[in-house]
Specification:
By secondary structure, the protein is of the alpha/beta class. The protein has 3 domains: 205 residues, FAD/NAD(P)-binding domain; 112 residues, 3-Layer(bba) Sandwich (FAD/NAD(P)-binding domain), CATH 3.50.50.60; 108 residues, Enolase-like, domain 1 (2-Layer Sandwich), CATH 3.30.390. Helix content is 32%, strand content 24%. It has a 5-stranded parallel sheet with strand order 4-3-2-8-20, covered by helices on one side. It has a 5-stranded antiparallel sheet with strand order 21-22-25-24-23. The radius of gyration is 24 Å and the shape is globular. It holds the Pfam family Pyr_redox_dim. Keywords: FAD, Flavoprotein, NAD, Nucleotide-binding, Oxidoreductase.
Length: 460
């Protein structure tokens, strides 16, 4: 019989929200155990945000070399050493894992490596290298995360396809990479591998890329892919997969088209890791059978149990998960912070980047809001001209009270520029604040002066 160990707090899962809360509470003197299956620092550092952006950076450098002549630089013919690309990506990951491990050690939390599951309503059993342990605490936080979804397409599992995880480990450039799924991950991987030398085909069931965005954004992304030679098959729902990724693999879509390549990558979304861990034993209810049901303080249906991050329905961004930590910390300290009405920006790391915060035109229409829309091509921004980064545009939505309701940008450094607009929105400032601000010249952010100078005046 294994004795049950008692802690002040248990955290199941060491992603951004969980590890932040664990370290914070351990530093305050609480006895905290964080249970993690093995990804020190969470999926963002190990298999998601950080390594994928490291890969994308290598692809960007390849593109810079290929285009060097346009800048008056004779760089010669570039070649891709995919083993070196993978090695650099791995080094970035290992460095950040090391930093996280040092931070864990310094905080005083107890890291319990192994798979955890509920065996009693408030007891988690962990199977790890150190054997079996049973842990309990008056406060339990679930930070379970998500995994790449694998759709039920005949032949798909037998083809042993790549997900973004395995794609990061490739030591050769795929000759032809088929990508099922044209969401944000699929688009980022498509451009990266195209620039590394693969012929890329995106097989997307939707009618356009960037389906969550306004049509002008989708059109700009499609133009970019056309210009880079990336084939996009829209309205193409995969119905059969034959062969094996890494050899010869083919995808048949429901209208009869067949696409053949050397490698297959699946990027059809993510699913929460909420099965087979005994949530029903703990009394934790799921919303729609997958995501954990929580209120705006992240409390679950089970007393003394909270859920953080993606598996709790939080938008699938690391910065959103970090705010879940802030909410949990606020609640512990008697504060009032909740998840209600959060203003969460995001960025798609294409080149040029796409970033958005707040509403788009479709959102405003659904909400029945009257908005003024202003659009500025990046081509007129002086910094864009000096960088030969003239693709894309900025767009803003302005309400009747002159406040900014939404901002979108497809252009160089969009992920940085969006933060400036977000701060103005958080302050509840009118758009004239950015229109009239003295912004450094020549910068991409200076384009905000030009954008907001073009906002139509209210009509009587």
């Amino acid at each position: 019989m294994v004795d049950t160990e008692h802690f002040d707090m248990l955290i199941l899962g060491g992603g951004k929200a969980g590890k932040s809360l664990a370290m914070d509470q351990a530093k305050q003197g609480r006895r905290v155990a964080m249970i993690e299956a093995g990804l020190i620092g969470g999926s963002c550092i190990n298999i998601a945000c950080i390594p994928t952006k490291a890969l994308i950076r290598s692809a960007e450098r390849a593109s810079l070399v290929a285009d060097a002549a346009a800048f008056g630089v004779n760089a010669g013919q570039a070649s891709i050493d995919m083993e070196a690309v993978a090695r650099r990506t791995a080094e970035v990951v290992s460095g950040m894992v090391g930093l996280n491990q040092k931070a864990f050690d310094a905080s005083g939390l107890e890291l319990v490596l192994g798979w955890g599951r509920f065996v009693e309503p408030r007891v988690i059993e962990v199977e790890g290298e150190g054997g079996r342990r049973r842990l309990t605490a008056p406060r339990i936080y679930l930070n379970l995360g998500t995994r790449a979804a694998m759709p039920a397409i005949p032949g798909l599992k037998r083809a042993v396809p790549l997900t973004h995880v395995e794609a990061l480990l490739l030591d050769e450039v795929p000759e032809t990479l088929l990508i099922i799924g044209g969401g944000y991950v699929g688009m980022e991987m498509a451009q990266a591998f195209s620039r590394l030398g693969s012929r890329v085909v995106v097989i997307h069931a939707g009618l356009r890329l960037g389906e969550r965005e306004d049509p002008d954004v989708a059109e700009e992304i499609q133009k970019l892919f056309d210009w880079e030679g990336i084939e996009v098959a829209t309205g193409a729902r995969a119905s059969l997969v034959e062969g094996r990724s890494g050899g010869i693999v083919s995808v048949t879509v429901d209208d009869g088209r067949i696409f053949t390549g050397s490698h297959l990558l699946v990027a059809t979304g993510r699913q929460p890791m909420t099965s087979e861990i005994g949530l029903e034993i703990a009394g934790v209810a799921l919303n729609g059978g997958e995501f954990i049901e929580v209120d705006d303080t992240l409390r679950t249906s089970a007393p003394g149990i909270w859920a953080l991050g993606e598996a709790a329905g939080t938008p699938m961004f690391t910065h959103a998960a970090f705010d879940d930590f802030r909410v949990a910390k606020s609640q512990l300290e008697g504060g009032s912070r909740t998840t209600a009405d959060r203003l969460i920006p995001y960025c798609v790391f294409l080149d040029p980047e796409f970033a958005r915060v707040g509403l788009n035109e479709r959102d405003a229409e659904v909400a029945g809001l009257h908005v003024r829309v202003c659009r500025l091509p990046m081509d007129v921004v002086p910094r864009a001209r000096t960088m030969s980064a003239r693709r894309g545009f900025m767009k803003c939505l302005i309400g009747k009270d002159d406040r900014i309701l939404g901002f979108a940008m497809m252009g160089e450094r969009a992920g940085e520029v969006v933060a400036t607009v977000q701060l103005a929105m958080l302050a509840g400032a009118p758009y004239t604040l950015l229109r009239d601000a003295i912004l450094a010249h020549p910068t991409m952010t200076e384009g905000l002066n030009l954008l907001f100078a073009g906002v139509p005046q209210l009509r009587d």
